[in-house]
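QA checklist item 7 of 12: single-chain prediction sanity check.
[x] sequence parsed
[x] length recorded as 447
[x] structure emitted
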Amino acid sequence: MIKSPIQLFKRLSMPISLSVKTQAQDLLNFIDASPSPWHAVSLVEQQLLATGYLKLEEKNSWQLTIGGRYYVVRGGSSIIAFAVGESELTKCGMRIIGAHTDSPGLRLKPKAAHIADGVVRLGVEVYGGPILATFTDRDLSLAGRVNVRTADGFETQLVKFDKPMLRLPNLAIHMNREVNEQGLKLNKQTELPLIFGLIEDKLDAEQQFLSTLADHLKVSSTDILNWELNVFDTQKGVFWGAHDEFIANSQLDNLASCHAALTALLSTENTESTLICALFDHEEVGSESATGAGGSFLADIVQRISSNLDLGEEARQQTIAQSFFVSADMAHAYHPNFAIAYEPCHRVMVNAGPVIKTNANHRYSTRADTAARFINLCLKAGVPYQQYAHRTDLGCGSTIGPIVASNLGIASVDVGSPMWAMHSLRESAGALDHDYMIKVLKTMYDS
């Protein structure tokens, strides 16, 4: 019998099982190795190749086979993997899980380095909606991709500085006496530049930064054309709590969902159904890009699968009508210190199972029938489930769910694992919930 969220929360007075902890540790390792969307996609690609998936290029013609397993990368930061099932698509449709590879944070400007009163600082832009105060007094560094000139044009190289390179020191309370009453407020233009170092002789700020980047990549600084670089926290993910029942790391939103979807796909033995795992960039800034869920990427893949299997337009539409999309993104767990922030009857608990997210204004794609379908998957998987609605007098966030549902005309549900401190540089969640999410997503693929 599936227990209530409160019963499950109380049950965790005992240590979590080794298998659950191993699964959670694998997630923490995945996040630690993925400080940018490009690193996340590269890691996903490595795991797909290791399990027999073949890479396809969008610019080439495709020859898909029944039972074949493939993946496509677009823009280096979005990836779609799929397995072609043996059953007719018009009869069973496609089972699709979607998540996003990006997280809110700070991104370096194209000409970032500048001198301010003898100190070299790096200018940043705010990406998405991070809690900016959580970036202060942290061991920060840089990761992303750099384009380097070659004889034939340029090549893209991933870069990740493992050691702390940057810092955003707080202003001492002696100069900011109201900080504990008013909260920490940072001017995005003047107070967010990160301290990089002191001025070096005979180098201006830009040369100093380029030299550091070039030395790391073992190239000439004159060959560095441009970059896209994330600021990330070098602290590794950890277990915490009396019995290691919680986890903490950056980017749980939404690399936890990416990891759960990928793990479910790679552990699925179902060869009858056509399965798709779609991981998109740019969700945190609205998804409107070639690599975002608002672009054509997923629709293009669905179309090319249909064409390769000789489905006409009517058969493709029949397939969509039989298909199901699960939008997996993290959910707001109830925080007892801030009870006023939550809808009283929808307080979802950490370590109490996947959350079905509903919004009357369709900020989430969930409908009553799609929620019922996901509830049945939870029951079949033997995991608990919870239902969430945002407090009515607070603005509700959104996901890729409504975007994909409207683009494809597909039945969709929005779900996620509960977490604390969403969009903080250091987020927290339940170790048990990640195992629950993998189980129900695997059940969806297997059904």
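[x] summary fact logged: The chain has twelve helices and 20 strands.
[ ] second reviewer sign-off
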